[in-house]
Amino acid sequence: MTELRHWWQRAVIYQVYPRSFQDSDGDGIGDLRGIASRLDHLHDLGIDTVWLSPIYPSPMADFGYDVADYTGIDPMFGTLADFDALVAALHGRGMRLVLDYVPNHSSDRHPWFLESRSSRTDPKRDWYVWRDPAPDGGPPNNWLSHFGGIAWEWDASTGQYYLHSFLKEQPDLNWRNPAVKRAMFDALRFWLDRGVDGFRVDVMWCMVKDALFRDNPPNPDWRPGMSTRDRLIPVYDADRPETMALVAEMRALLDGYGDRLLIGEIYLPVERLVAYYGPEGKGGAQMPYNFTLIKARWAAESVAEIIRRYEAALPQPAPPGVAWPNWVLSNHDQSRIGTRIGPAQARVAAMLLLTLRGTPTIYYGEEIGMLDVPIPPALVQDPAEKRQPGIGQGRDPERTPMVWDASAEGGFTRGKPWLPLGADHGRVNVAVEAEDPQSMLALYRALLALRRREPALGGGAVEEVRADGGVLCFVRREGASGVAVALNMTGAPAETAATGRIVLSTQLDRRGEEVAGTLRLRPDEGVVLAE
Ligand code: TEU
Fold first, then answer.
1. Which of 199, 225, 381, 478 meets the CB 3.0–4.6 Å disulfide criterion with 101?
2. How confident is the prediction along the chain (531 residues), in pLDDT tens digits per residue?
3. Which atom of ligand 1 is least distant from the CA of 395?
4. Which of 169, 265, 367, 409 is flagged as catalytic?
């Protein structure tokens, strides 16, 4: 029997993209006061932990992932007083706050970088990654930016290149320099002292680079249409062995404040991903984010295989608090689930996310079934799309404003929203769905309530994972109690063997129906059965 000792094992995390959640001052961009005004929605839904994408002062070249001050709030989002009020409001409701932390790079406008680039002898020169040109005058090596093109920018006034794994406006910090570590750890303490419950660490697997700056080898599987970064295999600029020691230090710092949460944003195959729990599954991040469902082929057999492979990769044995799983369907960098697999299957995905073993993260708007919003070229905001147009890297479509009601701007702003709302916003919104007992919102509420009520859905083991034709089946078991989950991942009726009483269907009917031997599922229907 698994006792869930830690709050983050019982948590349901909700990601807020602050620009897009709620505007309070009419500038068309969301802000902290706006978020604070919408906590009832999250609380009623059954959410207990909010993760905010960056709210720090920033020139917004990458919408806050280019930080110009690690211990402030961008005026666009509010003030430190607004922040403290938000923390107090969350804690007052028994909820928690996780902040984004962006250690790999700062903004090129950060005072540290301005000093660093001012001269080769500046005391902060070594706070960033500066290298001499190659003998031919070109970049020091072949490393590529995640956003296209070479990862090095020439600085004519000091005659060296600096490294930027993302935009040239996002120079990489040099974590091999102890002064950088001290300053960046002080920033963590600043927020922990203000009551923050944890951090989601941006590109955790990229923080440390090869000390010898060796070239990455070519990727034989690269094909036109793929991102230019995929031309090389990122052996030397990501997932370096030294990263683990740094993660362990971050974790120890957080542990000094009690039971705080360290989440790592990590895009790696699961066998490498689990290394970020730390040796023997402890001492690293409690949640190396598991993005396997984001890349999944949406079919019962492949998702069954993902669950088995992930569970098997977790460091074993797993005493409480060690190598705890987590699941993610979407985030601010990825196409929304309903767009990837269709609105009908998005309901099945919601049931999957909230019945699997481990802490789920819900991306804002998924609880009402928001879809990607096509953005005409003239309205594109995302630098990823501007730099490599047309290859599907643009992230604006999944970052459009949260829709609260059927009014013209969806209750998001009284001004002009920074990105347009979807054409479906008269139907897909909180107010309309709150009145509809069959809505996606009603389904999310029912799933979250069931998850809290049913011990097997908390700490219970996941067993008997199998695909039966197009139906994904698994059992969650906790001591004597167990539930079975059966998800029809096709648009056709299906049958599978099951016995028990239906406690929830994705179509929000059939409750209490007894199943004896054969479970018949409608197209795109998932059910949870109690034994
Ligand atoms: O994303 C890291 C990352 O790997 C992205 O390049 C991702 O693969 C891409 O956006 C998919 O299109 C993090 C943040 O989540 C992202 O928003 C930032 O732009 C990036 O880091 C730089 O900080």
1. 199
2. 567 889 999 999 999 999 999 999 999 999 999 999 999 999 999 999 999 999 999 999 999 999 999 999 999 999 999 999 999 999 999 999 999 999 999 999 999 999 999 999 999 999 999 999 999 999 999 999 999 899 999 999 999 999 999 999 999 999 999 999 999 999 999 999 999 999 999 999 999 999 999 999 999 999 988 888 999 999 999 999 999 999 999 999 999 999 999 999 999 999 999 999 998 889 999 999 999 999 999 999 999 999 999 999 998 766 655 799 999 999 999 999 999 999 999 999 999 999 999 999 999 999 999 999 999 999 999 988 888 787 778 999 999 999 999 999 999 999 999 999 999 999 999 999 999 999 999 999 999 999 999 999 999 999 999 999 999 999 999 988 899 999 999 999 999 999 999 999 999 999 999 999 999 999 999 999 998
3. 12
4. 265
Quick one: 384 and 466 in the same domain? no
Q: Of 333, 300, 334, which Cα lies nearest the Cα of 494?
A: 300
Q: How far is the CA of 269 from the centre of ligand 1 (A)?
A: 17
Q: How far is the CA of 170 from the centre of ligand 1 (A)?
A: 12
* Whether residue 265 lies in the annotated active site: yes
Q: Which of 74, 153, 169, 202 is catalytic?
A: 202
Pocket test for ligand 1, best of 52, 65, 230, 396 (most atoms within 8 A of CB): 65
Is residue 493 within 8 Å of residue 446, measured between CB atoms? no
Q: What's CA 99's distance to the chain center, in Å?
A: 12
For the chain, how many structural domains are there in total?
A: 3
> Do residues 494 and 469 make contact, with C-beta atoms less than 8 angstroms apart?
yes
Q: Residue with the nearest Cα to atom 11 of ligand 1?
A: 333
Q: What radius of gyration, in Å, describes the C-alpha atoms of the chain?
A: 23
Residue type, 143: W
Q: Residue 480: which CATH number?
A: 2.60.40.1180
Residues 226 and 438: their CA atoms lie apart, in Å, by: 40
Q: Are 385 and 392 in contact (CB under 8 A)?
A: no
Give the pair of three-digit tokens for residue 183: 């300053």
Supply the range of the domain harboring residue 486.
461-530
The CATH number covering residue 26 comes to 3.20.20.80
What Å distances lie between residue 484 and 6, 207, 298, 462, 478, CA to CA? Answer: 25, 41, 20, 10, 12
